[in-house]
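Cross-posting from the modeling subforum.

Setting up a comparison between two proteins and wanted a second pair of eyes on the formatting. Protein 1 (sequence, then structure tokens):
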Amino acid sequence: MIPREVEFHIQGRKLAGKRWGQKGNTPIMALHGWLDNANSFDLIAPALPDFDIFALDFAGHGYSDRRPLHTPYLGTLDAQDIIAAANQLQWENFSLLAHSMGAEVSSHVIGMYPDRIKRLFAIDGWAESISNRKWLKLHRDSIDVNLTKKSGTLRVFLNQEEMAQGVAKATRQTVASARILVERGSRKVDGGFSWISDPRVRWSDALGITYQQMDHNVGSFSGEILVVGANNGLKWYRADLERLASENEHFKFITIDGSHHVHMDADTTQLVQLIQNFFGSPVEQLDAGL
């Protein structure tokens, strides 16, 4: 299944992404991780032909425009872009398939737009729940650094293979999957290749959510939520998952073998089957399928 490149121009900014499947199928928006891009779903989306999947490049990533210099990278603004893209796709209701940072942002979206999101499938990621004091500090720090720090010159690599090797070393994913991300995340410059992503993404993002907001967002959301953790993936985000699962019947947390990029590494058969069952089954059949 060959994806189609998609571009929206919304209030003077370009939002880009890739779309698999046919219009009229179950709509799913796929949200990638920090410093990744829409290519993150190249290996699993083609294996899910029953759905209409749109993978968004977050602002400052992939082919989407960067945020204006006076605007920091905040989860609430990413939520705005998700809804803007859904409006352009004419999706009144849709589900979310989210990895890492995409899952963090999704925890905001289900609280802000519970009437528009049907289900959420998170891949090795979830938001950190924090105190009100820490939430305020993180957002203040994000604003302050965005107003004072200047972006330096991006490193130039000899070729895309050197970039992929560096990504694989930093993220502990395979070089093969890193190449897929580099393909959409790099550009040719004098002397070689460099990154497309906005350097400010590395130091001006604030994605945490308060304990009260987290409990409200999950508790008031009527759709099903499944978080699939990778055994060799991230651990920091898992502190609240067992509690949320024990307090909310519609919230499930399971683990499978794999790295943080389990949706891109090695054999994705089990993950694809979980996604197929989750989005393709009636609610009463979900428990039996997990």
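Protein 2 (same layout):
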Amino acid sequence: MKICFLVPDGVGLRNYLYSQLIDEFPDEVEIMLLTVLPQEVVKDVALAHRHKITHVPMSGYQESFKGKLLKEVITYARLRYNTRKVKNDTIMINWTRKNFAFVTRLFFAMAAFIGFFFSFSYRGIEWLEKKYSKHLQSTGYFEEQIRLLKQHQPDIVFSTHQRSLDGSVIVEAAKVLGIKTIGAIYSWDNLPKARLLVRTHHYVVWSDYMKQEMADYYPEISPEKIVVTGTPQFEFYFNKDLYMDRAAFFAQVGLDPEKKVLCFSGNDLTFPCDEKYLNDLAEALMEMPEQQRPQVLLRRCPVDLSGRFKPVFEKYPELIKVSDPLWKSHSKQWSFIVPTQEDIQLLVNVALHSDAVINVGSTMAHDFAVYDKPAIYINYDQPTVTHWSAVVNNQYQHFRSMPAKDCVVWLNSKEEIADCVNKALNGPLPDAETRAAWFKVVALQPLAEASQRIAGTIMKL
């Protein structure tokens, strides 16, 4: 059997290529990596596994006006349809098309106008998607992928991300050739966003909750085609070979091992206030008695290269220490900023040795939950920022998966910072079962067996 891993960008690298997934396949299985990532990244992946990996470079798809218009009409129609279905207006925030030139804004306005009328009929949306599939099959890129797949003859194509435009055409070509296809839904918050571009025969999802979301948003997909496997991204936290001694780790990042540590994890630049929240946190902590004051360990989002936190940690050098992600940039494009194995170890130790995490609605709350560490969710707005709201962000559809509000500590105002930090670090907190309940909804347990379940699912196709 030959399995083609379709990796259209760098974000799937850690979860599916640096995890144990590849090594869960029998030795006789051939692994083919179809990716835009450079050869040096593929070599790093190959060194991490016993399987020989064949690298097949992947070209990019140049989208036509017709294809882009169809795609955006479908996206808008689905977002409108989903908004009414689950009665949550925040879903439409995923249609943010304001910061563009006039001609581009005009294009998106046209897509929204057409999409609005199709949003009232699910059959109409499905009709559009059939038109879009036929369009993809009429392109030169599709014919190119037909030739490539005939040349390499994989038995199965496994797509690591459901939003890839390039990947959507490759999967269409695979289906026409009778090649079995299976796709991963990359993250727990992806399904309401109407960006299921890569339409595979089967899907693997994180949880029963996500499987129900697939039924809600894509009822045309048979439940038998959706397999709950969990996600490999949490497996690294169970690998004790990655653990560093606490004193050694603290010395590496400049922390005092005698004091508690609060990790501030940043988001990407679509969250425009993170540096302001870090400054608020620092101001509040500096007002605490020194013997009670925790240290702050800043981990910015790997794709945030803006430097926006620098004035804050330079202002409070004794309070804030920095643990920059060890990612490599192979291009200025977001999808070519890729994780390294060294960063996996760094992130594991950040979560292992910090006492709590604070952020605006980040998945890092779940990373810390692996070690039963509490999370503080920032839930107040910055008065100088009027185009974005943390309060609205925390009403996004994926937060409705939370079985109880006290799964995290909610920070509802700047004045509450010291109290919330003290609660997260020193208690009292709800019991462990209550705090773990959300994570059990989000990701199938046992967490460490996700790669094994995914590999087993692929082998059964």
